[in-house]
Amino acid sequence: MNGMHVLEVEHLNIWEERSGRVLVHDSSFRLAQGECLAIVGESGSGKSLTCKSLMRLNRTGVRQSGFVALNGEDLSKLSDKEMRKFRGRRFCMIMQNGMSAFDPSRPIGAHLLETLGVHFNWSRAEMETRLTATMSSVGLKEPAVVMRSYPHELSGGMLQRVMISLAIVLEPDVIIADEPTTALDAVTAYEVVEQFMRLRERLGSAMIFVSHDLGAVRRIADNVLVMKDGGVVEHGTTKNIFAGASHPYTRYLVSSKQAMSRHFEQLMGDADVAKG
Amino acid sequence: MKLLQRLMKDKLAAASLCVVAATLLIGLCAPLIAPHPPNEVNMELRFSGASWGYWLGNDHLGRCILSRLIYGIRPSVLWVLAALGATAIIGAFLGFAAGYFRGKTDAVIMRICDVMLSFPGYVMTLAIVGIMGAGLTNILIAFVMMKWAWFARVFRTAVMQYADADYVKFARVLGIGHIGIMTRHIAPIALPEIAVISSGALGSMILQISGLSFLGLGIQAPHAEWGMMMNEARAVMFTRPELMLAPGLAIIVLVSAVNFLSDGLQKALDPKLMLSEKRAKAGAGVIPPRLSGKEVA
Amino acid sequence: MLGYALKRIGAVIPLLVVISFLTFILNGLSPMDPAEVVLHAQGVPTITEDLIAATRSELGMDRPLLARYWDWLLSCLQLDFGSSYVSGKPVWSLLGPALMNTLNLTLVSSLFIIVLSIALGIVCALREGKWLDLSVRSVSFLLTSMPSYWLSALMVWYFSVKLDLLPTSGMDSHLSYVLPVAVIVIGYAGLYFRIIRSSMLSNLNEDYVLYGRACGLSERSLTIQVLRNSLQVAVSVFGLAIPVILGSTVVVENIFAWPGLGTLTVNSILNRDFPIIQAYVLVLAVAFVLFNTASDLLNTAVNPKLRKGI
């Protein structure tokens, strides 16, 4: 059983060092090869913190304990230097807001090339060929122009695609997408989720998809983890969660979403629109 | 009131508030508290040290240093406070008008502010004092003339934030008059911000005005003022350096208290700052207006 | 970029005209008639109405305001600011050397302020909350609450009188710079160090640092990115700081008898020597505007985000 899981998280606790306030308590979950797990919950429920702590990226003053293993390797035993090699290569993060995710005073390409340079011994030409190919495959029309652009010259949706294409080149074991669609408008969000689905098919990597967009979750996730106030309240398959959740909080989340889409359908007079 | 409650939780700010309040009170009641008349010359007691009758000793004319210190609060602090109040009121009024009505009003007021702010403040203060003659009144007038534009600009930014808030738009749709909206919806929220900005400016104003008095451009002898007292002590600096001590420490304590209080007010106003200072949003490329307007005497 | 620079410089010209006009009518604020002041300053024993009228026409004060402004502006552009009421010497022969001395003092001080506040700002931001950060911040807080003349007196008393290491006043050697520069640096470094520190901190908490870290970039590379973005703030802050320092060396100059603008101006104020005061205001206001414009242009050149709006 153990060998089949890419990622195992057991008894993860996260707390603030100074005040001792517990932010996430005793959460455990596993991720199988190629599985997509959605973590849902309201803001402040500890979704993002959980994701960051998988990569040991929480800011100073926030401590964590518990067992996190990638392909059976205990990550808490790694040195900072070893952990850095894992970041990007084995874990790949896709941020919520593309606009602020890149150094504002460097062209996008500089970040992409630097990242690839850290993990691979490719020549510059090879990196550029691979990036250009993946960028066009995710629908970025002029990869060379994009590489030369500064973050503020591109749209949020384009930057999201840049991050996705970087993930494709890096071929990580686990992709962590932290609310990737929240900052986007509905149409762009729909297209980006589409890209995520294709990304999964293409790489076969496991994915953690943090979101409070239940529509997107329904389309992409195999399993859903519901968090509330720093704890896991429910964990099950997407189908079961949407069909009949056992925890009242989950039922509340699902029903409010349904009420909203019903209202939306009535307004639009077109049932198809609501599925986005 | 909530602001005050939160402020009291911060011990340093509470202590600072006590220092500032005590200073103001002592200044107001100077004739009741001072042990001697501040200008009473007593040549026999020249440069005498601390004694039971004169706790802080006597200066070069044998005047009681403690009494002069107490009377000095009036020009050094109380009048500065009054000038600050006047500046803040003028600035707030124009800033409110510009931020609320926008359009032409805004454009005209802001153009004037641009011109005023393109003069370096300290230089203009000197110029106005130079033309109108030395004296505390002229310094204070110069200050009001030079600083209102800065206040107006800061307040305009603050008001613009709130004027865009949904409930203000809502009130506008409901047909509530401009003055009603300003007094009922914008002023109460913007006021604490004004308090923070003004208290931040007070410290540097006290320093600058005492600096001008030190140069002999402010209040004229024999009146007591902290900067003036140091100016007098300067003449005997090499033989009696201890005379610089009392007025200097008085200014340092008061200005530190004002600065701590202003910091505390800011934290109390924005609880996010209290949790972790790093969240202070000084976005790249933007200078915090509070800091860029500060000058050191 | 060139187009923007030209546009920005073009916008400065009307501002300079307004500034010069305001400076010109500054004399009108005086409660005394300038002609009377001149006569007083020249030590004329009995001042009669006739004498005042004669002096007025001698100074050209009976002509229309705008005509007088135009003549004044033209001569100012040739650095002819008239002559001192008191000594009768041309204003520029007094103001020019004083300006150079003040500029020297300002630039040397600014250099130290920039180096010190950037260094401290970076070190403290990277060690946020540690004892070094806390102690530097408390000391800087205390120092900004200290009147500069008090600090000067303290330092003169200690370094010059007690230890007899440094000259108390004047501008005789390189050693003369030490005390005045130290006082100015102490007064301002605390202020600007805090701006650099908070700008570093807000950058360290930006998403791009998190994403860079999540991509496996080295801490060194991330620190360089943060530095570059924080220093953009520094460029605009220091561009504004230099003219402010230039205008506020008055107190320090007076204490150390520095033969600069501050000393000259305070003496002129006490003597009511209007032409010098007027020239001083004009020169500093123009310097202020030019420095601001230059720092604005420099800022636009280094910051790609600002360049976009051009």
UniProtKB/TrEMBL annotation, chain A:
Belongs to the ABC transporter superfamily. The keyword ATP-binding applies. GO terms for molecular function: ATP binding; ATP hydrolysis activity. InterPro entries: AAA+_ATPase, ABC_Ni/Peptide_Import, ABC_transporter-like_ATP-bd, ABC_transporter-like_CS, P-loop_NTPase. PANTHER family: DIPEPTIDE TRANSPORT ATP-BINDING PROTEIN DPPD, OLIGOPEPTIDE TRANSPORT ATP-BINDING PROTEIN APPD. Pfam families: ABC_tran. Keywords: ATP-binding, Cell membrane, Membrane, Nucleotide-binding, Transport. This is Nickel transport system ATP-binding protein. Its main location: membrane. Residues 9-254 form the ABC transporter domain. GO terms for cellular component: plasma membrane.
UniProtKB/TrEMBL annotation, chain B:
It is a multi-pass membrane protein. Keywords: Cell membrane, Membrane, Transmembrane, Transmembrane helix, Transport. SUPFAM superfamilies: MetI-like. Residues 73-262 form the ABC transmembrane type-1 domain. The keyword Acyltransferase does not apply. GO terms for biological process: transmembrane transport. It holds the Pfam family BPD_transp_1. GO terms for cellular component: plasma membrane. It is found in: Cell membrane. It comes from the Bacteria. The chain crosses the membrane at residues 12-34, 77-101, 122-150, 194-223, 243-262. Belongs to the binding-protein-dependent transport system permease family. This is Nickel transport system permease protein. The lineage of its organism: Bacteria, Bacillati, Bacillota, Bacilli, Bacillales.
UniProtKB/TrEMBL annotation, chain C:
It is a multi-pass membrane protein. It is found in: Cell membrane. GO terms for cellular component: plasma membrane. Keywords: Cell membrane, Membrane, Transmembrane, Transmembrane helix, Transport. Belongs to the binding-protein-dependent transport system permease family. It comes from the Bacteria. This is Nickel transport system permease protein. The keyword Transmembrane applies. Residues 99-295 form the ABC transmembrane type-1 domain. The chain crosses the membrane at residues 12-30, 103-126, 138-159, 174-193, 233-257, 277-298. GO terms for biological process: transmembrane transport. The keyword Lyase does not apply.
